[in-house]
Specification:
The chain has one domain. By secondary structure, the chain is mainly alpha-helical. Helix content is 74%, strand content 0%. The longest helix is centred in the first third of the chain and has 28 residues, at 2-29. The chain is globular and about 70 Å long. The protein is built from 14 helices and no strands. It starts with a helix and ends with a helix.
């Protein structure tokens, strides 16, 4: 038991450190603001990364400015998606939504290559991709805090049910677990004013539902295999989500996807096809079976 607790603490500490590093790296990649005259009475405001999951103000939407500045040629053969984007934006579709949809195939390709080539497992492709969007909406540190609260609440709930011997049907049991998760998230929101985390106070139900899915997978693996395997798969999913979070918030990649959608969609499709043709060992398997391969 002590080994499991120690291992869990080390993994959580490593994830928190990695999340802090991701945030720092993302700020370094952000555009440098124009220096302003020094005013002693004013304090500088910290730079905030734009949230592409929220609809932006058309008057200050820099993506629309980029679209208006780009000169296009004929629709066919190379610009059909560009013209479709402009028509959609003219009809009221937010540019942030279009950018996010264009980058989701990139995120899925990164997760697939990490699993298929490197050997990082995680919980499939959908869940890390959804987690990366959650981190964009809440921030990586705040997202991990919410996730830990949800995992702790759902794990305690399952342990209590197992120790007490109470037998519940699946759907009512899941409904009761969602009730427990709601109480845990409410506790975090009530504590938000005291821990100085403004993003937690504005969290929506969407990140909570995605994090609940991950907590449910964590609990299933924990009961079916072991706590060590559950922590390993969850940690790998969080690492993949943090890497994809960097891609989703990387401003040059956002602008490239918006200005050259045909190129990014076609290149991702070709990459996925080439990746699907690979049938060799994964990198981690080469390391795992290095002695056998050497012999």
């Amino acid at each position: 038991m002590r080994k499991n607790v120690l291992f869990t603490s080390l993994v959580l500490a490593a994830m928190s450190s990695f999340a802090s590093f991701i945030v720092s790296a993302n700020v370094l990649f952000a555009a440098t603001p124009t220096p302003s005259p020094v005013v002693q009475e004013e304090t500088p405001t910290p730079e905030v990364v734009a949230d592409i999951t929220q609809k932006s103000d058309p008057a200050t939407d820099t993506f629309e400015v980029l679209l208006n500045e780009q000169k296009l040629g004929n629709v066919w053969p190379g610009n059909p998606v560009k013209y479709a984007i402009r028509a959609a934006v003219g009809a009221g579709v937010p540019t942030n939504t279009i950018v996010l949809l264009l980058l989701l195939p990139v995120v899925a390709a990164v997760i697939a290559s990490a699993r298929h080539i490197i050997g990082i497992r995680g919980f499939g492709i959908f869940l890390p991709a959804a987690l990366s969007v959650v981190f964009v909406a809440t921030g990586p540190v705040e997202g991990i805090v919410l996730f830990l609260a949800i995992v702790f609440a759902s794990t305690i709930y399952r342990v209590v049910l197992r120790k007490s011997g109470v037998k519940l049907q699946y759907l009512p049991r899941m409904a009761l677990m969602l009730w427990i998760v709601a109480i845990a998230v409410l506790g975090i929101l009530f504590l938000a004013p005291y821990i100085n985390q403004p993003k937690l106070t504005g969290v929506s139900i969407f990140p909570v539902l995605i994090l609940t899915l991950l907590a449910e997978d964590f609990s299933k693996v924990q009961l079916g295999k072991s706590i060590r395997v559950a922590i390993s798969l969850t940690s790998e999913s969080l690492i993949l989500a943090l890497v994809c979070y960097v891609l989703l918030t990387f401003r040059p990649l956002q602008e490239f996807a918006l200005l050259f959608p045909e190129m990014i969609l076609l290149s991702v499709a070709v990459f996925d096809y080439v990746l699907a043709r690979y049938v060799g060992l994964r990198f981690l398997e080469y390391w795992k079976f290095r002695k056998l391969i050497g012999n």
